[in-house]
Design goal:
Largest sheet: 6 strands, antiparallel
Distance between the termini: 66 Å
Structural class: alpha+beta
Order of helices and strands: HHEEEEEEEEH
Strand order of the largest sheet: 1-4-5-6-7-8
Shape: elongated
Strand content: 5-15%
Helix content: 25-40%
Number of domains: 1
Number of helices: 3
Length: 221
């Protein structure tokens, strides 16, 4: 009688082929899933920050320009208007070069939030939302003036810092989970994004973060 079953060799060969195919496709699927999660989380984070500024202005009549330091904007606006939990530590991030499209392409300075030798930042700079996202306000100041060339002016033409070539906010969209790396290409989104705080809005900083925010994948850096 003819045996219609599979031999052990045939079964093993089939398993090997399945394993090879899985090894080739699973990492790509995981990367695509992570990238989409990072994109969605960045949009949620930026939206939450902007809603906080809008709500604070509606209730208090105050904008970011009314606060002169990172600690004051965090304690009086973001921690009050967003659902936050106690946190005094930002992620130990790996810095990266960020293409801004301007003259200041290069490594961003995140030392106020994270330092490999000392990962505890000033508590007033850092806050964590209930969904686990971490935020750190770095460089921050306001001229408290409505002149269009004044920093943090009400026209939203100059950020709350001395230059629009340097971010004053970092967002870690998945908190303490890895990779804790600043995104430098929209084609390969990571979990940390630089941003700029203006008087009445927050926007992503640099080409890569902006492209991730608006679902573009054209970065070459």
């Amino acid at each position: 009688m003819k045996n219609l079953g599979f031999t052990l060799a045939e079964v093993l060969i089939t398993l090997v082929i399945i394993g090879v195919i899985a090894a080739m496709t699973v990492p790509t699927l995981m990367n695509n899933t992570n990238a989409q999660e990072y994109r969605s989380a960045l949009k949620k984070a930026i939206s939450g920050l902007n809603q906080a500024l809008t709500l604070h202005y509606a209730l208090e009549g105050s904008t970011a320009s009314d606060y002169s330091t990172a600690g004051l904007i965090v304690e009086n606006v973001f921690k009050v208007r967003m659902s936050t939990v106690d946190s005094s530590r930002f992620s130990e991030m790996q810095t990266a070069s960020v293409q801004t499209g301007g003259a200041n392409n290069g490594a961003i300075n995140a030392s106020a939030c994270s330092n490999p030798a000392n990962t505890t930042a000033a508590p007033t700079r850092v806050f964590t939302t209930a969904d686990g996202m971490k935020f750190c306000v770095t460089n921050y100041s306001s001229a408290n003036s409505d002149a269009q060339n004044s920093k943090c002016n009400s026209y939203n033409t100059v950020p709350c810092w001395s230059s629009d070539n340097t971010p004053n906010l970092f967002i870690d969209v998945n908190g303490d989970r890895k990779p804790n790396t600043v995104t430098s290409s929209a084609n390969r989104p990571k979990d940390i994004y630089p941003a700029l705080i203006y008087s009445q809005k927050v926007v992503p900083f640099g080409n890569a973060a902006q492209e991730v925010m608006f679902d573009k994948q054209v970065s070459t850096n």
